[in-house]
Batch of 2 targets.
Target 1
Amino acid sequence: MKQQKKWYDYLWIVSLVYLTLGFLNILFAWLGLIFFCTPLIIALVTGNKGYCHRYCDRGQLLALLGGRFGLSRKRDMPRWMVSKAFRYGFLVFFLAMFLLMLWNTGLVFAGARDLQEVVTILWTFQVPWHWAYHGTLFSEGVAQFAFGFYSVMLTSTILGLVTMVLFKPRSWCVYCPMGTMTTLICKVKAKECV
Amino acid sequence: MAEGKKKKRLARVDRDLCASCGCCRKVCPREAISIYKGLYALVDEALCIGCKKCAKECPASIIEIQEVDR
């Protein structure tokens, strides 16, 4: 019984388009805020994680590459990676790095720091990305945020791909910070209803 | 074989560790799985046929197929 595909079953294309656009012009990285806000809004409004199984573009991409294209070993994840401690720990680390990125953006806005035309992968490796910067009409801080945000998106995509290959296709879903946050929101909302 | 000893296979979810990502819901051929309030995967035992598709798909590998008395 094969279910008919809906329009939202093709959102994996959005992932590829986003990463490509950021390669051409870094300012497109701002569009990534959609992927941050939509799951939170859905969780806050409806109290469910409909975003994860319906609209998540990254989840679909990982399922496609790991499943249909067979790029996953399909092994069990180590138990420590499935644990709640790791999930919450990763969320805290992820948010801390995000705040650091916002702080650096603020410094550029304030003129206390020069624009860094690099994309930082895995919070460590600085990769030159100057070809994707063609100037901005606004403050250089706008571009700094774009570089920072694109770094976050690229880093998490890479982590998702690595755990896809090593473990199950959608292993990323287990420790996805957005998923952990929406679960927390749902927990609070479920308690409110009782 | 004595009747009444028939076993039924069912998917059991470790609700505490469930990430409620909905991967299982997507592959279930019987639409037996829903995500209860965004908290965990809930299996409708009347619909579940224990086909194991969800268990294979679950990225956290926390779904087990158990045999239970009918």
Target 2
Amino acid sequence: MQRRIPLIIVLLTGIFGAVAFFVPYPAIRNADEIMRNDVQRIITAFSLVLGVGSIVQHHLLKIRRKAQFWPYSYITIVALVITAIIGVFGGIDVTRPGVLPTRVGNFSFHIQTIYSNMMVPLAATMFSLLAFFMSSAAYRAFRARNLEATLLLLAAFILMLGAVPLGRFIHHRLPAFAEWILAVPNTASKRGILFGVELGIFATSLKIILGIERGWLGGGGK
Amino acid sequence: MNISTDPWVWIAAILTLAIFSFLYKENPLYRFAEHLYVGIANGYAITFYWHRVLVPSFFDRVGAASTPIATKIWLIVIAVIGALYFTRFIPKVSWLVRIPIAIVLGYACGASIPRAIDAEIIRQAKATIITRASFAHWQTGLWAVIILLGVIATISYFFFSSERKGVLKPLSYAGIIFIMIGFGASFGYTVMARISLFIGRLQFLLGDWLGLIK
Amino acid sequence: MGRATLYVPGLSSMADVATIASLNILGEVAKKTAQFGTPLIVPTSDPIVYTVAREVVKESYTAAGRPDAFHQDIVFFVTDQQFAFAAAVDGIMTREKPATNFLIGMFWAESLILAETGAATGAIQIAGTDAIAQLPFFITACDYTLIGEELYAASAYISREPVLLGAIKAQDYAKALITIIIVAFSLIALGLNLPVLKWL
């Protein structure tokens, strides 16, 4: 029962998910809409409790065991609790304040202020690290010294040169050549890979729906 | 020079520098920013799911007098299914956690099947087939032929059940050449966008924070 | 004991088939780490993936005859925010210095942040994704990369189950069929000028 019931549910919801795509009948369309919006969103919201429970437990364990760099775990826990309290009780819309005041004099600590001034710069800076990591990755490819890596590097180099004025200065047709690489060989390889990927997705999905692939059930139960 | 007096700009600038310091090496400042980021991100996720999902999609609708009773029952059933995640903490009934997972997983797998066939495989096959219209100009026709050959070569590289010999050997080799050129093109194409992100952060530090540039 | 093995099952949810394929591979990796007593670290960015990954690893440790070695801190949730997750995993990579990093599943722009940091720590890196846009970065920064459908094939191959292995062969036939259709339809369209695109 512990495995059979979930497998039956997967089969039924799987058939529904596939059929809903092809059946234009309004009742099916509505049910599909509910499935995509209400069911998925509400169920996911509940699952977050497990996630937050896990990260808190992970850091509490670090503190208890006095693991390496354990004092930093306090930062995560305190930041999590304070942000959640401010967000949940202070409201998420600036125009609709919650029960908790989010301003002291001119200083606002509303959740959107925290989002804009802490989360956004942190995310943008992490993202921008890629500018450096791309250079080191390119150097790694350069050191590989085999035909495949050389081709990759060469195509990347032409694309980069094609996008800057220097490229036109080197040869007036270089930007057009860069565009050609992107439009022709790049499209061909992407399409070729995509066929296999989509077949893989199709086969794996089918195996899960039919209960052949059961890894997601984890252990335990019968 | 016109340094910002806004405490939030200072906080954002210090956090930006803390993350950049990772490029030198892992250090206490980065460690601080990293742990803070994870904490805030989770706190914000709780806020988001509460205010943007549970309240409007569940509590407001269940509480509203205008909501049909059938919808209310339906919403409560969904919430009960969602609450089954908590059974993970009760060993005797912990298997019930598989029910919400099965619903999400089954639907996602089912929905991905027609999408994979209809939206991806058929669409890509149609785009690859050469017609007389492809030869409206000799160049476009030639490029269409190269794409077709490239697609076949790339597909042949991913034949797992047969040994690479005979015609498959040169074909799959041509496939890896197409793949590597394609990857290089993607790589090069992305570099410029990433550099502009870095420039964006520099503009923040030198402009918004230090006031050195406008 | 030795240095740890880090396994990142991507940043997507269970709704992504790549995540499921990754969790299958995680099961086999966990069996090996259990056998050899290697510490395993599995940070996750989706709460449901965290739950399933935890069960998969637990089962692997039991299957390997080492249920005692499983502890609740092997698999943990970090955050569902993309770059906060990347920052945390970068921190783990540089502090714990795992000997092997597995980056298998669905990745977005954070792929190179993770892969380059891992490469800089000197770890052996095995990546796999069906996210075509991220493959160039894994190819350049990792020692081995499962390209696209190789991820699904590896997931089936590693299980050694005949039905799953049979599916790989079936996929090969499907690819052959697609190739034949593309070539045949092109020849028909060029030779007979028939509206083949409407047939699909």
